[in-house]
Amino acid sequence: MKKKITIIFLLINLIIGYFAFNLQPTKIDYNLSEEKVEFLVPNNFPKPIYDFKGNLLTPTGFKLGRLLFYDRQLSLDQSISCGSCHKSSSAFSNFNRPVSRGVKGCAGNRNAPGLFNLAWQRGYMWDGRIDQFDLSSHNAIINPCEMANDFDHISARLQAIKVYPVLFKKAFGDSTIKSKYILNALTQFMAMLVSANSKYDKYIRKEPGGNFNDEEQEGYILFRQKCKSCHQEPLFTDRTYRNNGLDVRSLDKGRDSLTRTATDVGKFRVPSLRNLEVTAPYMHDGRFATLNEVLAHYDHGVQPNPNLDPELKSNARLGISLSFKEQNKILAFLKTLTDKNFINDIRFQTP
User: Fold this and answer.
1) Phi/psi zone of residue 254: left (φ > 0), alpha (ψ -120 to 50 degrees), beta?
2) Helix (H, G, I), strand (E, B) or coil at 191
3) Which one, 23, 110, 249, 325, has the greatest CB density within 10 A?
4) Between the CA of residue 211 and those of 167, 205, 329, 333, what are the distances in Å?
């Protein structure tokens, strides 16, 4: 009996400890020094889509955005921040979690994608229902299963924290905290999340550290033969929405949630393949734990969905023919897309 009481006592303390950790005031350095920031387009990248003229990038705006990104004050119960589900160590994805948990442990229904090269995107979220970068944070903040907050509440809360009116004044010339300023600051931080310094990038730019070994080179050739129609270089996405045959019948409406078009049911944004090594699990619902499972799906797991992409039903078969050896070579190439400089950049980590 005494042993049972001890176990119960320990479990209660673990539960209390868990909630105490998640509900404690955010410990971030509000006095963080400003970083010199400049948005540079990599030599091997196209011109970005986002127009900075409407939201000029500044050291003060970037600093404010970084603080807000990691501040739990943005969630209703102060339990999570943007950085809780988008971790810098995993290219701002939620590594090893098929779906993230929001306030009160609420589980979402879609995987949290990595955040990088966002200034080159045309649409945001898996279904592309948001087409403006400056509004890309809006959904996470107000979603009842994510941060579950509203901007009037957030503005009032931040206004009462002595340091924030000063920071907003420096960044936007106004100490009155408004939703537009919050979103613009977050955009300035996220716009700087540029991943373009992987081994692949060095290979393309003929820089030191960019020499492919035989397996990587052969994998690159195979990738260009079998995968490039959807995952176009250098962003490794064609920025379209496609159905890749995960199910015969799509339970998640995907793009149809926005377009209300039957042919868009089960279509999702083609994700970038950059940093795949650290952004598992994969697909919009995180169903595949490993890249091996992903490649196996394309070889022999594609389902005859009515909206299946034409690229996956050519040559009188579903999917893409990939032998085991070919899969390993493609995997070797995909790992050259891991950008360790980006993942370890202290400018993007918790203040």
Assistant:
1) left
2) helix
3) 110
4) 45, 11, 16, 12
Can you give the pTM of this predicted structure? 0.90
Of 4 and 71, which is predicted with more confidence? Answer: 71
Mean pLDDT of 221-242: 97
pLDDT over 80 at 3, yes or no: no
Average pLDDT over residues 270-285: 98
Cβ-contact 100, 145 below 8 angstroms: no
Q: Which two tokens stand for residue 16?
A: 């209390």
How many other CB atoms are found less than 10 A from the CB of residue 174?
Answer: 12
What pLDDT, on the 0 to 100 scale, is given for residue 100? 94
**Rounded to the nearest 5°, which phi and psi values hold at 107?**
-95, 130
Measured distance between the N- and C-terminal CA atoms of the chain, rounded to whole angstroms: 47
Q: Write the burial class of residue 121 (CB in 10 Å: 0-12 exposed, 13-18 middle, 19+ buried).
A: buried
Alpha carbon 280 to its chain centroid, in Å, reads 11
Residue 316 pLDDT grade (very low, low, confident, very high; cuts 50, 70, 90): confident
Domains in the chain, ordered, with CATH? Answer: 2-192 (1.10.760.10), 199-340 (1.10.760.10)
- Residue environment code for 53-92, b if the CB has 16+ CB neighbours within 10 A, otherwise e: eebebbbbbbbbbbbbbbbbbbbbebbbbbbbbbbbebbb
Give the Cα separation of 284 and 127 in Å (integer).
9
The SS3 assignment for 253 reads coil
**DSSP per residue, 296-322:** HIIIII----TT--GGGS-TTSSS---
What is the per-residue DSSP string for 51-70? Answer: -GGGS---HHHHHHHHHHHT
Neighbours of 131 (CB within 10 A): 13
Residue type, 151: F
